[in-house]
Amino acid sequence: MAQTEKKAGLLRRTSSSKKPLKEKVLLMYEDIFTKEDPTKSNPRFWDELFLMKVNLEHLEGKLEALDGDEVVKIRDNINSLFHHCVQALAEEHQIKVVNALQTLCALFRGVHQKNKSATGFDIINMLMGFDKAELRMKELMESLDSLLCGDGSESLKSLCLKLLLCLVTVTDNISQNTILEYVMINSIFEAILQILSDVSSRARHGYDAVVLLALLVNYRKYESVNPYIVKLSIVDDEPTLDGLGRVIHHALAEYNRQYKEKEEENQGGFFSTLTSMVGSMFIADADEKLSVQTNEAILLALYEAVHLNRNFITVLAQSHPEIDIATAPAVPIPASPTTPLGTTPPSLDMMNNPELPLDPNLQTSNLLITFLKYSSIVMQDTKDEHRLNSARLCLIILTCIAEDQYADAFLHDDNMNFRVNLHRMPMRHRKKAVDKSIPSRPLVCAVLDLMVEFIVTHMMKEFPMDLYVRCVQIIHKLICYQKKCRVRIHYTWRELWSALINLLKFLLSNETSLLSKHNIFQLALQVVNLFNMFITYGDTFLPTPSSYDELYYEIIRMHQVFDNLYCMVLRVSANAGPWKEPASKVTQALVNARAIINHFNPKIESYATVNHISQLSEDQVLEVVRTNYDTLTLKLQDGLDQFERYSEQPREAGFFKELVRSISLNVRKNVSLSTMSQDVLLKEFSSIS
Amino acid sequence: MGDTELELSPARLEELQKSPSASSTSTTSSLSLPSSPSSGPRPLTSSSPSTSEGLPTSSPPLDVISEGVGELSLVIDTEVAKKACQKVLQKVKFLKADGELSSANSEPVLVNGTAHPSEEEAEPVKNVRRRQKNNSSKQSWLLRLFESKLFDISMAISYLYNSKEPGVQAYIGNRLFSFRNEDVDFYLPQLLNMYIHMDEDVGDAIKPYVVHRCRQSINFSLQCAWLLGAYSSDMHISTQRHSRGTKLRKLILSDELKPSSQRIRREMPQPPPSCPPTLHHSQGMSEHSLSPSKRTHQRSKSDATVSISLSSNLKRTASNPKVETSQDEDLSSSSDSLELEAGTPVRLTPQREFIKSLMGIGKRLATLPTKEQKTQRLISELSLLNHKLPARVWLPTAGFDHHVVRVPHTQAVVLNSKDKAPYLIYVEVLECENFETSSVPVRIPETRIRSTRSVENLPDCGITPDQRASSFSTVPNYDNDDEAWSVDDIGELQVELPEIHTNSCDNISQFSVDSITSQESKEPIFIAAGDIRRRLSEQLAHTPTTFKRDPEDPSAVALKEPWQEKVRRIREGTPYGHLPNWRLLSVIVKCGDDLRQELLAYQVLKQLQIIWEQERVPLWIKPYKILVISSDSGMIEPVVNAVSIHQVKKQSQLSLLDYFRQEHGNYNTEEFLTAQRNFVQSCAGYCLICYLLQVKDRHNGNILLDSEGHIIHIDFGFILSSSPRNLGFETSAFKLTSEFVDVMGGLDGDMFNYYRMLMLQGLIAARKHMEKVIQIVEIMHQGSQLPCFHGSSTIRNLKERFHMNLTEEQLQVLVEQMVDGSMRSITTKLYDGFQYLTNGIM
């Protein structure tokens, strides 16, 4: 440190005479923003610059304030500033490295801020110069890679990630960020993986690394071959994938925990309700929405992992943070975090606390369970755009999971039973389920519960049509698996049936308003075909013969809905128009439901007359059903057990582009290099230098 | 003993009598290993150097003795020391006086010996000399016995334990080498317990053999280390630390007993330690190098003399493995030595870590309050354990060499136990030639399941073999379609054609999604609703009777599933299932339980099983293997296809007889009769066991019923002198409830008579070989604090239960009495009631 002082002293003699009130670093910045080569007046200019504390705002402001002509004039100086920044990264002196990293950040931001409209090539030219760009970026990426992978300071690693996040998010649309082309060529994928695979570095930098990865994967995803996609899809190292899963798990679990806390707070008596209501009006609400937004990036990472990497599926079922250390004796227990830098989400440090007590009441959890819980919270309210996006992404992820053989295998594994406490929206007409009563069941039951819950709670004016379609598709895919593998889960299918019938009812009663915006026949067809699955293939996956009877009972009980639906689709398909064809498909799909109704209703009526009963009990109806199967003929529908596999392109491309844009904006806003206080850094490095 | 000697065939006796005289005529060197009949060519080549050596030191008439001295003076190896013991024995046989042996002659030599095992080994030699006079005549007979073919490991153990004669002990210690490994392994607990708790002479006699075997086998090393730890635990802590057992255990675990053995195996595939080594063998070795591991039965003088010249060399090599390695480099190929070096530090580690993590899981499970939480935790812990597999680890309870490749974690179950957390895991292994030398299988990712149900889209996860290869030194190319997996085109991953229907379609659904519209053109298919309903009920009825899932008793379902069915199912769901050498094993991990009594019970059961088989008594018992890892942990080989009677009754809500009819069909069907016979034979077997061993705590949770109708008693926590809480329950000889009798067809049935007859036959047979049984128990009594040895009369009482003094008629009356007594025993019923009240066991 004495050395630094001395150098600062030297500097004072040369330049402080002019403007003694300004910080020295600002004076040096001014030197850069002249046409002159700063080394002319001070040959050791660059050496000294990186010993100064960076003034980010000032530097960024300066860059932004430049107009076109000036830029061209000082381009050489900026180029050499960039060059020297990159060189400084290789310095032994850690202060220099820190300052260089921060300066680079300011450079990227400032230049982009200034030239929002400019093409990527102009920006590259201005920062590095065309001829040198490739070399400079190569050097930069290599330095960052070695900093990230080396056993250097943790704060430095954190800063490297911040710089990368900063670079990745400088443009609103990530695909327009031409500089990233160099990040593609000089991959830092391996460095990210290394961070994720190591327990201690994962705890500190995992969050940033995962966000960075999610963003990089989305760079020009649909236009070119993105090496990050390729690499992510073939990772098969379990500790690494597990690490990725844990970071995601932790972020989602943290949100769940906060939500639950808030919920419990709100239930704590009248007075506290009042206060927290007032409080939440100002803080909590904004706060909560923000965290949904921050989790978009995590959710995107989860999606990419599930979608791209088949090996990741195994991780879904096996993350158990609380037993991390206990079971891995080979992995050295990391020293407790030395300096809480405030750069990582603070709670992340908890993740690997070796002294984490073994709470006997703690339910063993895994990523999938946490994700389902998270989904249940997010799906509760889809009015807000971010929440709607999150809910949609959740459903897309579930779609991918439901399609995967291996995932299906463990979802239906009879030996893996869990209690999953899904969050249920408080509604007037139903009591809040008591948590304790939830039985321990295979995970697929929780997925189905979540779908049922969604179906029941979103029949509203702003009808989230595409979410409903996805929801029904997920159910369909799960049932297809059950049919194919003859898995009989003990699930109360009745709840699903009645939810689906209610959905049809809702579509019917809101026909006109919905038809103006959506193709309701597509959804209706899917729902009816689900019933066809149960009716014609029920023998392959229903748990008991009586559940098959119950299916008939439910259809007969709600026969009016099917009757009305039939009338409606018949009417629509009779008229020429855009809905003619989809409606007629529904007509045909309804044939079995109608056959059941037409077959059993007269039988039930005659039973009632014969026995002189006005209202038949459920058991009596079931009795009639059981005795009259043999005279009923059903029509086997084609392709019931087939589904379209999920594909991101082209259907979802638009959604993901927008999502990534929103994430970019959010990350850019929240990446704050200033949180890394100079004091902390100095303290940390004083012992080193 | 008397029996066996009488049974010697006359021819053999003759031979025995001749042999001493024959050997006396020739030089002493011909008195080599008695067990090796092919010692013919040896004396000629070896005698000349030894006599030239021996003659100058002593006068001609004392030829033989002076030779002994000459040999003693060359002590450098335990081998030689043992040889000396041999000589002493032999001298005794010739009734030679020991006066000539000057202690002055031998003492300094011993001081000179620097190798430390040799000093220890030399010790008994002196003692022998002091004592040999008295017993000489007896021992000459002994030697004949020892040389006879009838001398088996059981006798050897017995003499080792009972003989106070160091010479005999040393001889037997030596003789151990000539038994088959498996035979000795059975008595390993006895051997080690003697090593730990008996006097030094016995220990010294046993040690060379143990060390030798440890060098040969990792498995043996670990077994020894575990047993030594477990049986030392009853000693006082201060003495324990310095005890021989602890020292040997440390030596084994330090892995110093390794280097030479590996090389031996490489140079000469399978040195036959079980059969007596031939002369060429030992000679060949002495010519090359005398590595300690090649310690065999070198008794000829020539060996001794050769060893003089090599003695310095040898000592160096023994203490300094480096020298040995360099010495050996010309012998082994460079590649071998490379692997050797790589393998050196981790010989025992993987397996120890594996066992340790299994035990760790058990410990953590014990902290969780509910079965459900335990099960979940178990599954998740095991899934993490999977990350570290395949590895060079194995299940010691298995009967073949293998590597563990995967633990199908979702199949694991927590067993019923009040406060401990024993659990049952299934383990997928790949059988191999030799787990120490065969290469460890390559890991296959979880997601690569080769489901037999669907053949679609398997090759779409990309793993290049090279990527995997980098982490392993060798990759056996066992999986030919590895090539297919390496195809990884990102385009393939990303571009999914919307029309692709991935589901395998049965019967009718081969059409595309939008075929619904064009349906009219096709012939519609109609099905009857009744058929669907019927199929549903039929399919559910067809599945074999399974138990209902009960979160409080998770093991019931897992254990009820037929083993073959389970193997098939697990094989379907594992990425290793396609390999031809794939096997499924299971093991119960017990943490916090002392399995030493279980091991003792296993040995007794096994011994009785052998006896009954030998005597052709069709009693059926199922000794299950026990692995003692420490005094409070271990593993048990589960009995497959068996559930406890408690579980049977709770799940089926039927009486035992009705359950038999449900499972095996009605009376008079062949299936039922077979099951009934099995039941009777096993019942009789276990009743005898329960009586002889005084097995207590016999509630229905501790009695299993297998799919063939056998009963199997488990949990031998209360045997011999111990009983639960000493409440005085279970005073009857064994457990025989009226329900059992019902299954046998009632008191008047033929099967019940058969049962009584079997009991009698079994008891007579067991009585005949009582010594073999007693000996197992008696040796383990040494130094033991186990509750089953509580009090002073354990062994005496055990002996009394064999009723040596009764005639067969009296014995028959006794059996009748016991059966009647047990039948009427109110205490059995009381105990069941007590268990139902306290533990909910039906």
From TrEMBL, chain A:
The identity of this protein, by name, is Armadillo-like helical domain-containing protein 3
Per UniProt, the keywords (alphabetical) are: Membrane, Transmembrane, Transmembrane helix
GO (cellular component) term, any one: cytosol
Assign the protein's first listed, main location to one coarse class: membrane
Q: Which Pfam families match?
A: ARMH3_C
Tell me which residues make up the Armadillo-like helical domain.
435-671
Subcellular location(s): the record lists: Membrane
Superkingdom to which the source organism belongs: Eukaryota
User: Would you indicate the residue range of the signal peptide?
Assistant: none
UniProtKB/TrEMBL annotation, chain B:
Keyword annotations for this protein? ATP-binding, Endoplasmic reticulum, Kinase, Lipid metabolism, Membrane, Mitochondrion, Mitochondrion outer membrane, Nucleotide-binding, Transferase
GO molecular function (one): 1-phosphatidylinositol 4-kinase activity
Q: Which residues form the PI3K/PI4K catalytic domain?
A: 561-827
Q: Where is the composition biased (Low complexity)?
A: 19-62, 332-341
The PIK helical domain, residue ranges: 62-254
| Composition-biased stretches (Basic and acidic residues) | 117-126, 259-268
Is 4Fe-4S tagged as a keyword? no
Q: Where does it live in the cell? A: Mitochondrion outer membrane; Rough endoplasmic reticulum membrane
| Entry cofactors | Mg(2+); Mn(2+)
Q: What is its main location?
A: mitochondrion
Q: Which family does it belong to?
A: Belongs to the PI3/PI4-kinase family. Type III PI4K subfamily.
UniProt name for this protein? Phosphatidylinositol 4-kinase beta
Q: Which organism is it from?
A: Cyprinus carpio
